[in-house]
Specification:
The chain has 413 residues and is an all-alpha fold. The chain has 24 helices and no strands.
């Protein structure tokens, strides 16, 4: 170029920065004859997104005072948040001379991602003038951490303050309805989408399929699924999982085949759902074949959840020795869920001999989960070995392990 100005310099620096090539971005940054606040912001953002927060902070401290605006501060705070460094983010956030809506939302989302919903709410309550983005950050954070009733309460307050829901809002509320298993709430949100004319984007459609599937309305889930112009792996997984959970294993496997034919690559979540469907349907041969496909066909890492599904599959089919041998040859240490699947199968098939072999293995688990102890106690009781059943209960008391009482969720209007 015969002539270059600050815009063209910023464009080329921003291009390298956004593509993660901070080496060349730095060379260009040092060569630029005149820097703007945008130049500094692009570089700080580039280092933050690449995970080099030390370099990002070093550059932030070099920004001339007249160019250090609210965006410059926000980019670094968000960089700390995105990398899970909430202590550093909070220190910088508190030092900000002024704050925009994005940095408030970033802090709320960061604390929610860490599971600290109380601190996220504390940040939210400090916002003097809120907007829909701030409300969506709080509602999404509540939903992600399982505080679904609080998410709906926040939504009610959001509407009282005069803010209209959008695609982000309803996607979070659909997820909350799915977690609660509340079909009525989910249908109300679906009606709201139509009433408010909210765009049915990929996230909203996925949320509807997931909500209807988890709430047991497979017919509506399938109707929305079939009408989608494009389906990603999240949507396929939601539909397959819904069919599997509600005992429609044949349909789940058929849909998995359709997913493969569509060209959409299944992921680890897909295989958990499909293997669960095989376990519930008693499709041992098909389950073993699908399990082997994970690594051989798709190159996916097999996790402990997949081994747990396979143990459950073999156990339900009465192939307890194979299930036990699989656990012993797993490349990772079995957890209480895996052992629980085997013990559950032992109880179903009244296999007390294998229980004795498993008992010592469970003893080395570093867990306070009551499930293995309760299962062992029930197995002994079912075979009239009351002394051993009582011993299991006494061990729970000695180890200060309490059994959570069962409860039911009832809603009415």
């Amino acid at each position: 170029m015969p002539e270059r100005n600050v815009v063209t310099w910023n464009a080329i620096i921003g291009g390298y920065s956004k593509n993660g090539d901070m080496g060349i971005a730095c060379v260009l940054f040092e060569q630029i004859p005149l820097r703007s606040s945008f130049t500094w912001t692009e570089m700080i953002d580039g280092f933050a997104r690449s995970g080099d927060l030390v370099a990002a902070r070093r550059l932030f401290d070099r920004v001339p005072s007249e160019m250090k605006n609210v965006v410059t501060w926000t980019v670094l705070v968000d960089g700390y948040v995105s990398n899970g460094l909430m202590k550093e983010a909070r220190e910088l956030f508190e030092a900000m001379p002024e704050r925009n809506f994005f940095v408030w939302s970033s802090m709320i989302a960061g604390y929610c991602k860490k599971g600290d919903v109380k601190e996220a709410r504390s940040i939210f309550d400090r916002i003097k003038v809120r907007n829909a983005v701030n409300w969506n950050a709080l509602i999404a954070g509540y939903t992600q951490n399982g505080f679904c009733k609080e998410a709906f309460e926040a939504f009610d307050r959001m509407q009282v303050e005069g803010f209209e829901p959008n695609e982000v809002t309803v996607a979070s509320l659909l997820s909350a309805s799915a977690q609660l298993g509340s079909l009525d709430s989910g249908k109300q949100i679906h009606d709201l989408i139509g009433h408010k004319g909210i765009k049915l984007n990929q996230f909203v459609l996925n949320g509807l399929v997931d909500m209807y599937a988890k709430c047991g309305d497979i017919s509506n889930a399938r109707k929305i699924f079939e009408g989608m112009p494009r389906r990603n792996d999240v949507c396929w997984n939601a539909m397959i999982s819904g069919l599997a959970v509600h005992g429609r294993s044949d349909e789940a496997l058929e849909l998995f085949c359709q997913m493969e034919e569509s060209g959409e690559k299944p992921n680890q979540v897909t295989f958990i759902s499909v293997l669960s469907a095989c376990a519930r349907g008693g499709f041992v041969k098909e389950g073993l074949r699908i399990f082997s496909m994970m690594k051989e066909k798709y190159g996916l890492a097999v996790g402990i959840e997949h081994y747990g599904c396979l143990v459950d599959l073999l156990g339900r089919a009465g192939r307890l020795t194979e299930a036990y041998n699989l656990i012993k040859t797993m490349p990772m240490k079995p957890n209480d869920v895996v052992w629980g699947a085997l013990l559950g199968a032992c109880r179903i098939h009244s296999e007390t001999e294998l229980v004795e072999r498993v008992k010592d293995e469970i003893g080395i688990l570093d867990t306070h989960n009551n499930a293995p102890y309760v299962l062992l106690s029930n197995i002994y009781a079912a075979s009239d070995r009351w002394e051993r059943a009582e011993k299991m209960r006494m061990m729970m008391v000695e180890n200060e392990i309490q059994k959570e009482p069962g409860c039911s969720s009832i809603t009415w209007q």
